[in-house]
Amino acid sequence: MTDQRKTTSVTLHRTAQGQYRAQNSRGASVEIAANGEAFSPGELFLASLAACSAVDVDLMTSRRAEPELFEVKGSGHKSTEGGNHFEDLTVTFRLRFPEGTGGDAARDRIPAAIRASHDRDCTVSRTVETGTPVVFVVDAQS
What we know:
By secondary structure, the protein is an alpha+beta fold. It has helices at 41-61, 101-121, 123-130, and strands spanning 10-16, 19-24, 29-33, 69-79, 85-96. The strands form two sheets. A three-stranded antiparallel β-sheet has the order 1-2-3, with no helix packed on it. Helix 1 crosses helix 2 (101-121).
């Protein structure tokens, strides 16, 4: 059997104390900060959870009709019991499609699209639900 895994990574650069820039291999970047106006690491996690399923559902529904409203919210309760973590993770879809045949087809596709994203396609929620271990490695430079 062939290993079909593909390595994906982002690199985080410190820009100041408690402030960072994450960059992917294509050159896109996002600012992250412990405090302030930039996204916190937890907010980026929630955004990733929402965005992953949003992409799936968007691709499966917008083929039928262009949405009039497409908002996806990732949320969770931050808990400190047993170490910092989120509980009660929720992805909420607010979708509206135009009246007519295309809009009807898009609306009809929503439940199956969300199920497919949850059960198979969304890497982020699938990783959380499978409980994938995280390994920390130190590559100290002298």
